[in-house]
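re: ur question from yesterday

yeah so i grabbed the chain u mentioned. its 411 aa long if i counted rite. heres the sequnce exactly as i have it in my notes:
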Amino acid sequence: MKKMQQGVALLVAMLVVAIAAMIATQIFYQQQIAIRRTLNQLQAEQLYQLELSTEAWTKVILKEDTSKNNFDYIGDNWAQRGSLFDAEGAVIKTVISDYQSCFNLNNLVLGGKAQPAQITILQNLMSQLKLNPQLVWSVVDWLDADDEPNSAGAEFETYSRLTPAYRTANFRMIELTELYAVLGWKIETVNVLSPYICVLPPAPEMNNAGRFYKDTAFTTININTASEIVLRSLSVDMRTANLGTILEYRKTKGYATLDLFISQLDKDNPRQPKISAGLKKELLSVDSHYFMLEYSGWLDQMEQNYRSLIYRKTSATNATANPVTNNPTNTANPAAEDNATPAAEDGSNTQTDAAVADEDGAVNTATQSTNQATNTTNPTNTATSANTTTAAPPINPANVQINTLYRLQYY
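ran it thru and got these structure tokens back, copy pasting raw so excuse formatting
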């Protein structure tokens, strides 16, 4: 009997030890999870702060660029792609892109009305890429203010029969991924077109209620940074134009004025009427105001990716966003802008970061001199007095405002 009791006691002791070991293991495991969770939070915050620092660095570069010239081209310091460097134990990669080198889909509809000149450009672009140009009309219907479909488009009546049903936005796009919701736009179509298109808000303005956007303003295409395909989409004649000299010259110098670009274009393509006659000059520019910062940061096993849309405004130049009336065939005039303060905007299929605080928003207190220096950057050096143009002088960085319009984290 005594031996049996000793056996039971031994079993109980072993059971107690086993339970204690299990409890200790669970406590240790939970502690390790808590430590790792805390470390992840600290590393994520560190990468986020490095992203903010990268934004500030980008704004400094964009400000300094205005002191060198009053135009933007692929040889500028900000355009040197893929900077990779170490910072506080992390590895950071940054890419700054000119977002006026692409076609802005929001230009298709302004003030609730379709814009034929902009529609033609996008159709030319899609034709070059062997895509169906009629798909443009479904985007127009997605953006315009009414519920009346175009002949090749689709409005609420069509979308209401889908499963699940949803409405058209009848408003400008916030993110390019909205195209996936537009009827007829497949993933393959968007992937082919996405390097040449973008989604931009109008130039931000301010009133007593805060920041707002006028949906009657369009953004221009920078002929110094636009790809060859985008340039050839500007008109039907441009598709077969000789652009060799222009493309080579842009790599090293860039065109200081739009007139220099047009002069070279007509010289390389002698014909009557001139090839430039088919261009809508008010849709083009040689400078840019919208830039996209793409940031990737790695720290230990943590990775974070952000995209920040940065808006640069100078007091010496008119806003890149040009106002139009509801007349689709109007000629745009430059619009004045008020000081803009940044705020976060939600984007489709993305995680929106906290609202962006106002950064580096220097108040414009001085206007630039109207005296212009004689231009010496004509690539042909043969411009006559009839087409000789003058480039605007460089801008004092103190008269430049740079704000973050939105910051999106993506995976």
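noticed a couple things. Residues 316-320, 325-388 have pLDDT under 50 and may be disordered. also The radius of gyration is 28 Å.
anyway ttyl
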